[in-house]
Design a protein that fits this description.
Pfam families: DAO. It is built from 11 helices and 21 strands. Strand 3, helix 2 and strand 4 form a beta-alpha-beta unit. Helix 2 packs parallel to helix 6.
Length: 444
């Protein structure tokens, strides 16, 4: 699409500069803990393990470079949003367990902000909160927000907003700056990150790569949306696509026209929802689902997304802010997030095999990765803590259906959600039954 850079991993990485892979694995070797995946889950796990026991030889193995995946492509919401279904967690640990997980995630926002400050990680972090708006009666009922339409407009003038909810426990982040900063600190603690090294299979005590075998008594799988590319894990977690566009820097007059004077993040209560942030350099970055899934659990190439997804996000931006209908888009990209069959995250470790994993954050991973990393630390070190007793610890879920049922089901699911949104936008005053059918299909 003319004038819009598409791909290049992400706008965030283009801002800081794409790194070249370093410290590739050179033949067979061994270590104490092998972590597969150089995103934030793996990096936070390495950080906390090295902090707890500096004598451990911890290695991270990454196919591209640290932060290549969702950790360097996301919308920059360091939020306390639950990574999964409250109903699913409650079935395991009751409402008290769900509340403990919510509280832990809220505390984790402070943990990440605190680590960044202590370690000198400059990631454009602003503890700004998130504003969620309802733009129809059905959305208003679901949101049950405390803000009137006028109070929403006092913060951001979203066209058609009828109510809103403000959650202060959220921070804006530049994702590539955060993940590259964590990678730097991890290396400074003595952890080796073997980039440019593609893992083909894992088993107890062994990580097989295209550059040799890494043997370790502890092997942790932290691949999130790229889990399906690992032998034997094709149907574990579905790689769901999400795409983002970023505008050119807005003028003072344009910002004044939409009243977005603060740094709060912005989302809506639609079933096929959108999410946005005001960037540190005065742009709007806005994301949404786009094409939800590629056949056979394939992933994107270099972050490139479809032209029709770019146009869909442009339309969403114009719908929210009609005065910005002609604003230039500078960049578009996409990435994948890990979705388990019950849409709920898990952290697990089996001492008898030395195998563990964390992920399946269903799009709420920027905060959850840190909590998962600290939980894996405690599990690996054999420490029973409040973290290891959270309801996502040891959570098990069935696998996704084989193709073509997986592809057909996911596309039908989002077709239903979009149909439900259209009905509600057309005046339906309650949540569409179509959305309820979609929830049942999804297993949410």
């Amino acid at each position: 699409m003319a004038g819009v850079r598409n791909g290049g991993v992400s706008f965030w990485w283009q801002q800081v500069g794409l790194p070249s892979p370093t410290d590739r694995l050179q033949g067979d070797t061994s270590c104490d803990v092998a972590i597969v995946g150089g995103g934030l889950t793996g990096l936070w796990t390495a950080y906390y393990l090295a902090e707890a026991d500096p004598t451990l030889d911890v290695r991270v193995v990454e196919a591209e470079f640290a932060g290549f995946g969702a950790s360097g492509r996301n919308g920059g919401w360091l939020s306390s949003e639950l990574a999964g279904s409250a109903r699913t967690y409650a079935a395991v640990a009751g409402e008290d367990g769900v509340q403990r997980l919510r509280d832990a995630l809220r505390a984790t926002v402070d943990e990440v902000v605190g680590v960044a400050a202590r370690e000198g990680i400059e990631a454009d972090i602003v503890r700004s909160g998130v504003l969620t708006v309802a733009r129809s009666e059905a959305q208003r009922q679901r949101l049950d927000g405390e803000l009137t339409a006028g109070q929403v407009a006092d913060r951001v003038q979203v066209a058609g907003a009828v109510s809103g909810h403000f959650d202060p426990d959220c921070a804006r982040v530049q994702p590539a700056r955060l993940v590259s900063g964590v990678a730097r600190v991890v290396r400074e603690r003595g952890v080796r990150i073997h980039e440019g090294t593609r893992v083909t299979s894992v088993s107890p005590g062994s990580v097989v790569t295209d550059r040799g075998t890494l043997r370790a008594p502890v092997v942790l799988r932290c691949l999130e949306g790229f889990t399906a590319g690992l032998a034997g894990h094709r149907r574990d977690w579905l790689p769901m696509n999400s795409a983002i566009v970023v505008t050119a820097p807005l003028t003072d007059a344009q910002w004044g026209g939409i009243g977005w004077d603060g740094e709060e993040l912005l989302g809506d209560e639609a079933h096929a929802y959108c999410y946005a942030q005001r960037t540190a350099d005065g742009r709007i970055a806005m994301g949404g689902r786009g094409i939800p899934y590629r056949f056979g659990s394939r992933t994107d190439v270099d972050g490139r997304t479809q032209d029709r997804t770019v146009e869909s996000l442009r339309s969403t931006l114009s719908s929210l802010f009609p005065s910005l209908a002609g604003v230039r888009l500078d960049h578009a990209w996409c990435g994948v997030l890990g979705v388990p069959r019950d849409w709920s995250a898990s952290v697990a470790y089996d001492p008898s095999t030395g195998l563990g994993h964390a992920g399946g954050y269903v799009g709420s991973g920027l905060t959850a990765t840190n909590l998962a990393g600290r939980t894996l630390r405690d599990l690996v070190l054999g420490n029973g803590t409040d973290l290891t007793r959270l309801p996502w610890t040891g959570h098990r879920v069935r696998r996704w259906e084989p193709e073509p049922f997986r592809w057909a089901g996911v596309h039908a699911l989002y077709g239903l959600y979009r149909a439900a949104d259209r009905r509600e936008d057309d005046g339906l005053r309650r949540t569409s039954r179509i959305a309820r059918v979609a929830h049942r299909v999804a297993g949410r």
